[in-house]
Each structure stands twice: as structure tokens, then as C-alpha cells.
Specification:
single chain; 370 residues; alpha/beta; TIM Barrel; 8-stranded parallel β-barrel; two-stranded antiparallel sheet; 15% strand
Length: 370
């Protein structure tokens, strides 16, 4: 009996160890990323990116400096093809080949969607609301299922971009109307997009959904927005915030807002867009609304690095580990002829494409000399 029990116990222990070896618990990765949606356009214009004088593929360079995630914006039918479906599929292959996570940012527009613009795709302009709702679901399903089919599934899908005023105006315009009808319609559109993600992914490809607003440091507006979504029963995984200090307040404002949102709604939070200048063209002669450095951080490479290090630490310190990451917007948008760049002050590269030391803020193993 004793020998039999030992054999049985040994077999159980062996089987248990095999089960856990085959399916180890997954440690959730803190997102340290960049939105490099301009990259194909930059490369076509001849952009080259280098690290200590050595040219590198941008994704390899980013990963070498601690980044693990790429965000890509998607437009419905862009005029020049950039950020359309086929371009997104191609970039997704590069992201997965580089071993990085993928965030898909669906604008539900043919061009920029932001607090000032939430214009329907031309193909949807005259659709009755029921058909618009169906189009959102089918389009979302198509994008996500196409990514899955080519074995480059996204980790996160944003249902809209900076949708504080709503999206797909005027049906989902809650800034202009702010009434029960338009909150209901916005919520139905969001639910349609979320359903499109869920139905395309299934249990085999769990994909998180994000609702993204722009006002990172504005708690009053954030609560107005998410309280209304909660009333409408919109279910999603992540809160995404844009945080640009010249528009959205101080880092303290951001910290208070993130902490409140995370605890109030029991949601994980990502600063999905941010940037800080490494120089300013018009320092001291600026008009209100132009770029500026956060108070206490220079418009210099070391100021950019300090800002990013402190911002990453702020997000990591959101209560109950609800702070899940930081994504830098358009670090690659160089001022090349034909690029249309208005962002050279905010990049993580100099104007020749040489990476700035401030990128090391994303590298946990790198220690600054200070």
C-alpha cells in the first residue's frame, strides 16, 4: 500500500508539473510604446534612423531602448493610402516580426479624428443610424479578423480616437448636443465596435478594448464622460488618456485624474499619447496654445528624459497596479521635405534621424548619470 501510494503521488506531482510547464502563468507587461504611424511615409521620403551613427530599422532601435509596444492609427479610406487597411496589415507584420505588442487605434474616419474633428467616413455619410451602427461593427470586425488571419493579432483595440466630444458626428456628437439621445447613440456605436472586436477574436485571441479621451489632467470632464458611459452600460477594458501638458494640465493633475478613474471605475489606465519638447523654435515668443515644456522640465534632451521617467513612474504608481503603460506619439515624424511635420520639437530623434539619449527613459535597465 505504501509503495502504491508513493507511485500514485509521484505520478500526480509529475502530471501537475507538466501542466504548469505547458501553460505557465503570464506576467502582464507594462506598456512602453510609441505611435509610429508616420513611419511608412517617412521611409518613402528617405528617412533613416540611427543609433550612435549606426543605421537601424526603427522598430529594432525602439526595442533596443526598452520599448515593447507599437500603436498604429487606422483610417477608413485615406486619400493617400497611408494608415488604411492594407498599410496597417503591412505595418502589423513588421511589428510582430520585431516581437512587439500591437495597439490598433480605429479613428472611424477617413482622416484625423480628435476633439475638433470626428467626421464620418465618406462611405458612411448618408447612412441611417441603424445602418451606421451595423457598419461600425462590420468594419471593426473586418480590420481585427484580417489582422488575426495573417497571424498578427492586436493586443488592444481602441474604439475611437480622443472621443471626449463623441464620434461619428452628428449621430454620436455629445459635445454639441449632450442629451439622452446622443449619449445613447454614442454608446450604441461604441458597443457595436466592441462587439466587432469580440466576435472577430473569440476566446483564442483575447483582445482588450480601450476607450480613449484627450483630457488627461481634467478630472471633471473625465468623470462627465465615463459616468455617462457607465449609465449606458458600455463594457470595455482600458481607459486611454492623452496627456500633453500644454493642453491638459500638470503631471499632478494627471496623477490625481488617473488615480480617481482607476479606483472609481475599477479600470486599468494607459497614457496612450504623450510628448515633451527637446527644443523650442520660438522659446520666449510663444503664442498661447503652442507647444511648451511642462513646468520644471527643460525644453531640452535631458528635460525630455526627466519628464518621461517621471511620467512612467507616475503611471506605475496608480493604485492597485491599475497603471498599465505610456505611449509616445510620433517620435519618428522628422521635418523632411514633403512630410508636413509640425512636430520636430517633440520627436525622439534629431532632424537627421539620430536617436536622442532621452529615449533611454523607456529602458528599465539603463541608469542615468546624475
Amino acid at each position: 500500500m505504501k509503495r502504491t501510494n508513493i507511485v500514485i503521488t509521484s505520478a500526480i506531482l509529475t502530471l501537475t508539473s507538466l501542466i504548469y510547464a505547458a501553460d505557465p502563468p503570464q506576467k502582464e507587461t507594462f506598456i512602453k510604446g510609441c505611435d509610429i504611424s508616420f513611419l511608412p511615409q517617412m521611409e518613402k521620403l528617405g528617412a533613416a534612423y540611427s543609433d550612435k551613427g549606426q543605421k537601424k530599422d526603427l522598430l529594432v532601435l525602439m526595442k533596443d531602448h526598452g520599448m515593447n509596444t507599437v500603436r498604429l492609427r487606422v483610417w477608413h479610406t485615406p486619400k493617400n493610402g497611408y494608415c488604411g487597411k492594407e498599410a496597417t496589415l503591412e505595418m502589423a507584420r513588421r511589428v510582430h516580426n520585431a516581437g512587439m505588442k500591437l495597439v490598433i487605434d480605429l479613428h472611424y474616419s477617413d482622416t484625423w479624428a480628435d476633439p475638433a474633428h470626428q467626421i464620418k467616413p465618406a462611405a458612411w455619410t448618408n447612412l441611417p443610424f441603424a445602418d451606421l451602427e451595423k457598419a461600425v461593427k462590420e468594419y471593426t470586425h473586418d480590420i481585427v479578423s484580417s489582422l488575426i488571419k495573417q497571424k498578427t493579432p492586436p493586443d488592444i483595440v481602441q474604439i475611437g480616437n480622443e472621443i471626449t466630444p463623441g464620434m461619428l458626428w452628428d449621430d454620436g456628437n455629445i459635445a454639441k448636443f449632450n442629451d439622452d439621445l446622443h449619449w445613447k447613440q454614442l454608446s450604441q456605436l461604441l458597443k457595436a465596435g466592441i462587439s466587432g472586436v469580440m466576435e472577430s477574436s473569440g476566446k483564442k485571441n483575447p483582445i482588450k478594448t480601450m476607450i480613449h479621451i484627450d483630457c488627461g489632467g481634467n478630472n471633471k470632464t473625465s468623470l462627465w464622460f465615463f459616468d455617462n458611459l457607465k449609465k449606458q452600460g458600455v463594457e470595455f477594458d482600458l481607459i486611454g488618456l492623452s496627456y500633453y501638458s500644454w493642453w491638459h494640465g500638470t503631471m499632478k493633475d494627471l496623477g490625481r485624474n488617473m488615480n480617481d478613474l482607476a479606483m472609481r471605475y475599477n479600470k486599468d489606465v494607459v497614457v496612450i499619447e504623450t510628448a515633451h519638447p527637446w527644443f523650442l523654435y520660438n522659446a520666449g515668443k510663444k503664442r498661447k496654445g503652442e507647444f511648451d515644456a511642462h513646468p520644471g522640465y527643460e525644453a531640452a534632451v535631458n528635460g525630455q528624459e526627466s519628464y518621461l521617467r517621471d511620467l512612467i513612474a507616475l503611471v506605475r504608481n496608480v493604485p492597485k497596479k491599475h497603471g498599465k503603460g505610456v505611449v509616445y506619439w510620433a517620435p519618428e515624424w522628422l521635418p523632411l521635405k514633403g512630410s508636413g511635420s509640425t512636430w520636430s520639437e517633440m520627436t525622439l530623434f534629431d532632424n537627421m534621424g539620430q536617436v536622442l539619449p532621452s529615449i533611454n527613459a523607456f529602458n528599465d535597465s539603463w541608469t542615468p548619470a546624475r
